[in-house]
Design goal:
By secondary structure, this protein is mainly beta. The chain has one domain: outer membrane lipoprotein receptor (LolB), chain A. 11% of the residues lie in helices and 51% in strands. It is built from two helices and 15 strands. The chain has a 15-stranded mixed beta sheet with strand order 8-7-6-5-4-3-2-1-15-14-13-12-11-10-9, covered by helices on one side. The longest helix has 16 residues. The radius of gyration is 17 Å and the shape is globular.
């Protein structure tokens, strides 16, 4: 692959990798599309997760790795993620930090840094009950339960751990999810139980497959998550597919409890 194609592939892959935490923007949601529900939750233990990455972008296959640091305790949480590809180094960096309230995770700030782009943030002003963005003039009300595109996976884990009897095939879970520039409603649907082969240190595990499909006519991405009940419901596999059928797939290689 020559230098031009490497850079073109890296730019496209960066967009896809950023979708691990921040799928492509969708139109702003109307007020009546803002889910706000109190549901039992049980957050998993703090841990560092290491993933391998496999991606197809514009006909090229690229490989790399991603790290995720998950911390929770004393009424607070932090999530830090990074992705890297050989020769190019860091492609994405995403963070979410906030408190834990009656809805579960309550972000205060979402940070998104992509390859060769300036970082952007979404800020949750809990006193003013408003969500605003460093890049853009849009704003949204805080009604309770809002997530960002890093925290959403872990909010889903916490709900699954607390509601195993309700987290069954066909069930749907609604959220209002904030990205780097705007926010929109997301719905996850539980597909069912599947076996997934993770890294050598993990092996083959039973998982619960959860799918987020974009609304009809949307150019947003499809997100599949496989949660492992035997491993504290940590995500052992994630797959993002865009409307061009390019994809990024993360596979868990190692868990280090903290």
């Amino acid at each position: 692959m020559n230098k031009m194609w490497k850079l073109a592939g890296a730019a496209g892959l960066s967009t896809l990798l950023a979708a691990m935490a921040a799928p492509m923007a969708a139109p702003a949601a109307a007020a009546d599309e803002h889910p706000s529900q109190l549901r039992p939750f049980n957050l998993p233990p703090s841990a560092d997760l290491a993933y391998s990455i496999s991606a197809k972008q514009r006909g090229f296959t690229l490989n790399g790795d991603a790290t995720l640091s998950w911390r929770q305790g004393d009424g607070k949480y932090t999530i830090n993620t990074e992705s890297r590809v050989a020769l190019l180094g860091k492609l994405t960096e995403n963070r979410s930090q906030g408190t834990i309230d009656s809805y579960g995770l309550a972000p205060n700030e979402y940070y998104d840094k992509r390859f060769r782009k300036d970082p952007v943030t979404a800020n949750f002003d809990r006193e003013a009950k408003t969500i605003a963005f460093s890049d853009g003039k849009k704003s949204y009300p805080i009604k309770g339960g809002e997530q960002d595109r890093v925290s959403i996976s872990w909010q889903l884990v916490g709900l699954a751990r607390a509601g195993k009897d309700k987290f069954k095939p066909g069930s749907e879970w609604d959220f209002f999810v904030v990205g780097p520039h705007d926010a929109d409603p997301w719905t996850f649907r539980v597909i069912g139980r599947e076996k997934v082969t993770a890294g050598a240190a993990i092996g083959t595990v039973d998982t619960i497959h959860v799918l987020r499909e974009p609304p009809p006519g949307s150019k947003d991405q499809t997100l599949d998550i496989w949660l492992a009940p035997s491993l504290d419901w940590y995500p052992v596999k994630l797959r993002f597919v865009d409307n061009e059928r390019d994809f990024v797939e993360q596979t868990l290689e190692k868990i280090t409890k903290r």
